[in-house]
């Protein structure tokens, strides 16, 4: 059996209904309202599918491991795309997410390694964790100004991603959100202009000297992790919090940098001990 035509009398298809089937195509009934969890999980020969116009939700892992899937048509009726819905759909080259979609679960497009472009609707307010992680062919992403948060690992190892527009509306960026985006120029990311939350791009493009703006009050954990070319950094007096591991693996950061908490408590240093003198009095590297 390589193709299935489901009669129009069917209004519900249960979880795992076609899990592991070697079908190449399926004709779904127009009265269907939900694609349940795992419904086409591991259908490795499925090439294309048109989702009926009454469907409002695509379940968790509905098309996971459908690695021959090249085309998906998502109607305007869909409001929710579940976790790992298209996980490891390695042949999927593009997808249009309609403006009706308000929620996309974590890792929904994880390892869609042929995905070169994606349309992100203004109806979304967050990019979930791992959403486009390991989409190694993705070259450019424009985030609408409705997005307020980018989850952990959201674009991790998108090795071809050379450009991304992060709007001012974004107030939270999760750890490692852009780790491994080696095609991007070195870029510092800020949450609401006050939190230096990390960097994206090629560590080899990291400048030797960085000066943080006076608006910054916090440096996130691991913010400058593995900035291997960084030699010196100017941290303004406005900074009140420096997260754990903020300068970890900055092997060339050779200026004895005293670290303060809330401007009063000196809780450590960063750099070579040989560079810290007995009369060292500089606060926050300035």
What's the quick description here?
The protein has strands spanning 3-5, 25-27, 34-35, 48-50, 57-58, 71-73, 80-81, 94-96, 103-104, 117-119, 126-127, 140-142, 149-150, 163-165, 172-173, 187-191, 195-200, 209-211, 218-219, 232-234, 241-242, 257-261, 265-270. The chain has 286 residues and is mostly beta strands.
What does it look like?
With 286 residues, the chain is mainly β. It has no helices and 23 strands. It has strands spanning 3-5, 25-27, 34-35, 48-50, 57-58, 71-73, 80-81, 94-96, 103-104, 117-119, 126-127, 140-142, 149-150, 163-165, 172-173, 187-191, 195-200, 209-211, 218-219, 232-234, 241-242, 257-261, 265-270. The strands form nine sheets. The chain has a four-stranded parallel beta sheet with strand order 3-5-7-9, with no helix packed on it. Strand 22 (257-261) and strand 23 form a beta hairpin. The N and C termini lie far apart (71 Å). The model is unreliable at 273-286 (pLDDT under 50).
